[in-house]
């Protein structure tokens, strides 16, 4: 009997659709996509869920402001998010709309499980509410009648709600954090959450009576389920909770990828809800940082904004994927600007990888009629190139597994850089001029370096690498674990085509002047 492939399940945050997708949304989804693609190329069967968070007050208000019914408005916005993901080559296996029938069933099932186990009760709620945070605040927390985060007016709400006994889960959560030290990463976020839990947890209201925009509470049509309690369950819906075949195979999720602003929902409230409902816990919550633009918080209204689609149209999705993940390490905040974009693009893509591919394939074309030459006389410098690959591949794999994409990219660049240096050191053009028999070996070794770097870089820049793979007859699908660790692998005499320039150099001044 063949062993089933190992399974891997990654989720991205379920985006609010009250506005258009921005670079922060794109960044997170790209990170998840890289992880998903990498796991697939290491032989895993992968599921990757994204989705739209539709039942928030801010979505309802945005719909009314646009003169639309919330459901129609959401459908329009969902299209914008899907278009953005397609443009960035983000390929989830499931897009869960929180308003879908499947997600409604998930939320209801979870609600009933909580109710049956005695974890919810009805009580009065009196508090200030911020529709943008979807959160209640105490008198002490608001600042001159304004939300402390959004600086917009808060509203007084007084009503009967259903409550979840979060207060009973402080101990089980502390046990979890102790048992699974990597449950929340990176460490600063874990520490932050530990102090939230140690600071004392109060029960939370999980229904709303003042709105009808949402999923009705099972058995109490006067209330709708709190938006977070139909959004977090979207992760379960993505793999067919409660009884789909995929659920048994893919849950618990290997990692929930979220922004640092929503860590508490994912690493305090969500695990407590799951414990209460008797559903296994996700293995990890990875909280990434925030992108700022030229040092400032993104804000469309203040004009601090870069339209993600425009960036793709202008520079291509590979370039944006690359620059975002290298400029903003996945465990902290990072800044983005067009000037940084150009520098990074020119250094890493045009001068490094693009240049290596172009120089290598052109030499193979010119000297060997576009066929992989035979490996003959080997020298110490060849071994050095090979050993660089042998060293960087495991570093690269481990970094991606830890969602340290910028480190993985740096590892891959070491191989690319070493190969470019190898060209300078071996100077194939002089070997050719002198009729030196080493020429074939040098070009064959270079093709191997291109092959391995193309495989490594594929999850990050899928388009350019797919073109190179097609030009070299490489397969980029299936389990590449062995391929990427073997050298040499290319068959002597196999055709190698010269493609168009992958990443034309950008003229810094001209691009900046046109902005
Ligand atoms: N709907 C909630 C998530 C529910 S998950 C069950 C939400 N939506 S959001 O649209 O506001 O944010 C979606 C994701 O984008 C979040 O992980 C958030 O942290 C992330 N980002 C929002 N702005 C960002 C940046 N400026 N930079 C990086 N990521 C950012 O929260």
UniProtKB/TrEMBL annotation:
One Gene Ontology biological process: methionyl-tRNA aminoacylation
Short motif ('KMSKS' region): ranges: 297-301
Protein's cellular compartments: Cytoplasm
Annotated PANTHER family: METHIONINE--TRNA LIGASE, MITOCHONDRIAL (PTHR43326:SF1), METHIONYL-TRNA SYNTHETASE (PTHR43326)
Motif segment ('HIGH' region): 15-25
Name of the featured protein: Methionine--tRNA ligase
CDD domains referenced in this protein's UniProt entry, alphabetically: Anticodon_Ia_Met, MetRS_core
Reaction it catalyzes: tRNA(Met) + L-methionine + ATP = L-methionyl-tRNA(Met) + AMP + diphosphate
Keywords of this entry: Aminoacyl-tRNA synthetase, ATP-binding, Cytoplasm, Ligase, Metal-binding, Nucleotide-binding, Protein biosynthesis, Zinc
Function: Is required not only for elongation of protein synthesis but also for the initiation of all mRNA translation through initiator tRNA(fMet) aminoacylation.
EC class (word): ligase
Enzyme Commission number(s): 6.1.1.10
Cofactor binding, per record: Binds 1 zinc ion per subunit.
InterPro entries (alphabetical): Anticodon_Met, Met-tRNA_synth, Met-tRNA_synth_2, Methionyl/Leucyl_tRNA_Synth, MetRS_core, Rossmann-like_a/b/a_fold, tRNAsynth_Ia_anticodon-bd
Listed cofactors: Zn(2+)
Gene Ontology MF terms: ATP binding; metal ion binding; methionine-tRNA ligase activity
Record-stated family: Belongs to the class-I aminoacyl-tRNA synthetase family. MetG type 2A subfamily.
Quaternary structure and interacting proteins, as annotated: Monomer.
